[in-house]
Amino acid sequence: MNRFFYSLLLYLALPFVPLKLLWRGIRQPAYLRRWPERFGFYNTPVIRPVIWLHCVSVGETRAAEPLVKALQISYPNHQILLTHGTPTGRETSEALFGGSIFNNSVQRVYLPYDLPFAVNHFLNHFKPKIGLIMETELWFNLIAACKQREMPLLLLNARLSEKSAKGYTKLGKLVSESLHSLSAIAAQTTEDLTRLQTLGANNISVAGNLKFDVKPPVDALNKGLQLRKLFGSERTIFLAASTREGEEKRILEAVKDLEILTVIVPRHPQRFNEVESIIQSAGFTYQRRSNLVAPIDNNIQVILGDSMGELFTYYAACDFTFIGGSLLKYGGQNLIEAASMGKPILIGMHTFNFADATKNAINEGAAIRIKDTAELRDKIQYLMHNAQKREKMQQAALRFSEASTGATIRLMELIADYLH
């Protein structure tokens, strides 16, 4: 496929975009707001040179935190512009940077759809001095427009699973030309580097994974201890973090009749009510985190984690955790945050989004791989009754986390080559 036909397909889909936004707005009302930004129209003032960083959703935004703070310190006369693709990504940005001492140097908008007119409106309005794209976001018209303007555009923290690489291969020249048009690429691992090179990437290096540089909030431990008092200090607490559709039923099956408090935190907030119905249907006594103001009764079996921005607090409050998105074929979620809090980790078979980190965590002794619901139940029972094993895994998790830092420094050195 070439870029002309790619753009033509986007224009043909354009009449259906409002319907898609309306449909998503039924479950997430935030999708009904700021539509002009999605088509490249902005009223955000530009008063300083702009460093533009694209973080499509929650995971990329959290991972970018150490990089954003390093950019703020190194380039105080520049405006940091964060672009997002989802309301939850934008909300995460507001939570991370909106209340900090740096809030006057961070702006956030939606990145427009990859339509030529929308992309040009975006670049003409903000006139970035440099563009930084996180992880695997390849927008072909956007990349071409940046190259035409001779604006440096870097792909940072780049990762590419085997599955995604096969998908990109089908697009042929469109992908190879876009990768060639990037000023530089910083891959997370040598495996990512090899796959990107196979697709046509050049000027590529390995810088590590930014997610390892994300530090727990300074108050996470204290908040976790307070939350644990509400849960019951004497109870064993199992956290199922960032769960995806279809996993909650299996997790509830795994903990049925166990003397344990299970905390389920769905990955997407629009699923809170759905997961509540699943817990009810399974016959568990439960309470929503949002309604938790006093210590729970001992008969409560499940807590529904229906709060945003508290994942580190949940990790601090639990004894061990399962990382969602890995029991079914979603590719897994970030286990690095749990490791940085020193928590024993259980993780499923499907971890292609975090393959290298998962492999290293298992080899270090910080994580245990489970293949199905029955094995998840076995390992939960094992960790419940084996405090010595939990202690060993806690120490291994901290070693694994601390040994993998440094990506921010390497990326800042790369950025400095293009931002003068």
Low-confidence sequence ranges = none
Helix content: 40-55%
What is the CATH topology descriptor of the largest domain?
Rossmann fold
User: How many structural domains in the coordinates?
Assistant: 2
The number of helical elements comes to 20
Beta fraction of the residues? Answer: 15-25%
CATH class of the largest domain, anyone?
Answer: Alpha Beta
Averaged pLDDT: 94
State Rg.
22 Å
The CATH architecture of the largest domain would be 3-Layer(aba) Sandwich
* Net shape: globular
Q: Based on helices, strands and strand pairing, what is the structural class?
A: alpha/beta
How would you summarize this macromolecular structure in one to three sentences?
The protein is an alpha/beta fold and 420 residues long. The chain has helices spanning 3-13, 17-27, 35-38, 58-63, 65-74, 87-97, 116-126, 140-148, 162-169, 173-181, 190-198, 220-231, 247-255, 272-281, 311-317, 336-340, 355-364, 373-384, 387-402, 407-416; strands at 50-54, 79-84, 106-110, 130-134, 153-158, 184-187, 204-206, 237-243, 261-266, 286-288, 302-304, 320-323, 345-347, 367-369.
Describe this entry's structure for a reader.
By secondary structure, the chain is α/β, with parallel strands linked by helices. It has two domains: about 220 residues, Rossmann fold (3-Layer(aba) Sandwich), CATH 3.40.50; about 180 residues, Glycogen Phosphorylase B (Rossmann fold), CATH 3.40.50. Helix content is about 45%, strand content about 15%. It has 20 helices and 14 strands. The protein has a seven-stranded parallel sheet with strand order 3-2-1-4-5-6-7, with helices on both faces. It has a seven-stranded parallel sheet with strand order 10-11-9-8-12-13-14, sandwiched between helices. Strand 13, helix 17 and strand 14 form a beta-alpha-beta unit. Helix 7 packs across helix 8, helix 12 packs across helix 15 and helix 13 packs across helix 18. The longest helix is centred in the last third of the chain and has 16 residues. It is globular, with a radius of gyration of 22 Å. It starts with a helix and ends with a helix.
